[in-house]
Amino acid sequence: MALNLITDPWIPAVRTRERVVLRPHEVASEGVAQLDWPRADLNLACHEFLIGLLFLADPPHNDGDWQERYDAPDAERLRAAFEPFAPHFELAGDGPRFLQDWERFEAGAEPAGANPPDMLFVDSAGESTRKHNADLMVKRDRYAALPLPLAAIALYTLQAFAPAGGAGNRTSMRGGGPMVTLVQPLEGGAHPLWRLLWCNVPEGLPLPARRAAEALPWLRPTRMSQNNETVTPAMSHPAEAFFGMPRRLRLLVTDGMVNGVVQKKHGANYALWSHPLTPYYRKKPGAEPLPVHPKPGKVSYRNWLGLAFGEGGDTRTVAASVHRFHSLSNAPPAELLVGGWAMSNMKPMDFSVHVYPTFRLDSDAGLRAGTLVEAANVAAGALMGQLKSALKIKGQAGDAVREAFFAVTEPDFVDAMKALTAGHGPQVEDAWLRALRRHALRLFDQEALPTLTDRGGNAIEATVKARQQLLGAFSKATGVRKALGLPAAIQGVP
Question: How far is residue 24's CA from residue 37's CA, in Å, rounded to a whole number?
Fold first, then answer.
């Protein structure tokens, strides 16, 4: 049994409330709502695979072409565009294999001597972890064998998100566990999955299938990295961003199942690439852009504003797909889907996918949005500083209160962003100031007052003084008001 990732049905999805298995071109069929892999990281990676395939074979040429196909997708057109690439997307067999090394070094290998197939999953135990019985949070030997479709998407996910894998085993083009940001239209109509994918496909021209080796690295000898040689964008087609191969892998396939994986070191070492679906940042102006990586838990609005709009001056850049979407003249209302593996070096800590609102802002409103976030940061700093003074705590103690502050103020922030989008005036900043003060005082009282009598000494005096200082952060011309561009409060007026 073989699997061709272009012509065979292999992608699980939901269509009109029923589970179906699709060929890639059928994502443009009516009623296809969402992907349905058994793991969230596989779903996110499959979105990337399909977006990359569209960019490779049939991307939008301009805004007009994008809008026309957004409104009226054509599955038959996609079938015709993808079909010439079909010979290059075989998962098994004697010729080049999808995302597997050019060299057939699996020949003669036995499953017993190879890596187990679950090494394809980011949260599986690596060789060193298994050897030292250190797999407390990561797992070993979960799958004795994988069906070909599951192996295919797990292979893609590993190559796209590959963490550090020991000496010589390269990370993904974006490092281990990159953050992925996808524009997701609020109204999917009859084609929800198609519209999500199409909103994130870079503009360009299709690559002729005869030149596929320029973008698909498994069609050429591996660009090795024993001496830290790198693969730069100048050496490949831009579509290789979606089909990078940092790991040298070959699958062992028996009776239609993958029952082992053979790995060699020193695969492609990517440098200077900018992936269209990932935001980037610079440690300082003019420095090399670095991909953003998620941290455990939900991203708060102080971070997602930068993911959606690039707030952060010349040190932060939104994903190219987000930037292009905002530049469309008729871009539909949308939100931002943000996901990825939070990693600690080689260890996966948490995989999360969250949805955040996004807004169409002119330059003035964008600057004002940035001041709202800056004011929240100042307010949070004042809250933490005065809590530490009142409770006599040091270091990172109380950081949970900071996170709680951003969580409880998020609904007010979304309301403020809606008001900015509608063109409202300075009342937006006034309302935001009041919301920040209300929540900061409530959290201060919640943390400082219940233990007041237990702390003894001058605890009452210290707490009263700290609370007065916190109030001052919202009333004086410095602090939060300065961040918002507001004057000092008139005495007796909140």
Answer: 14
Residue 491 has a pLDDT of 55
pLDDT at position 347 over 90: no
Residue 383: closest CA among 360, 366, 399: 399
Alpha-carbon gap, residue 238 to 230, rounded angstroms? 16
Would you state the pLDDT for residue 234? Answer: 96
Region of residue 249 (left: phi > 0; alpha: psi -120 to 50; beta: else): beta
Written as one string, the DSSP assignment of 250-281 is: EEEEETTEEEEEEEES----B-S---TTS-EE
Residue 308 structure tokens: 């959606």
Q: What is the DSSP letter of 234?
A: G
Q: Give the pTM.
A: 0.88
Cβ-based neighbour number of residue 436 at 10 Å: 27
The closest alpha carbon to 161, from 34, 40, 9, 11, belongs to 40
CA distances from 435 to 31, 241, 405, 414, 427 (A): 42, 43, 11, 12, 12
Q: What is the mean pLDDT of residues 354-367?
A: 83
Q: Do the Cβ atoms of 244 and 268 come closer than 8 Å? A: yes
Average pLDDT, the chain: 89
Distance CA 65, CA 68 (A): 5
User: DSSP H helical segments within 344-398, as ranges?
Assistant: 363-391
**What would you report as the CA-atom Rg of the chain, rounded to the nearest whole angstrom?**
26
Mean pLDDT value across residues 133-147:
66
Using DSSP, state whether 52 is helix, strand or coil.
helix
| Beta pairing class for 316-317 and 32-35 | unpaired
Confidence of residue 133 (pLDDT cuts 50, 70, 90): very low
Structure tokens at 83: 């079909």
**Phi, psi at 425, each rounded to 5°:** -90, -150
Q: What is the DSSP letter of 238?
A: G
Identity of the residue numbered 185: P
pLDDT attached to residue 331: 87
Q: Domain limits of the chain?
A: 11-280, 359-494
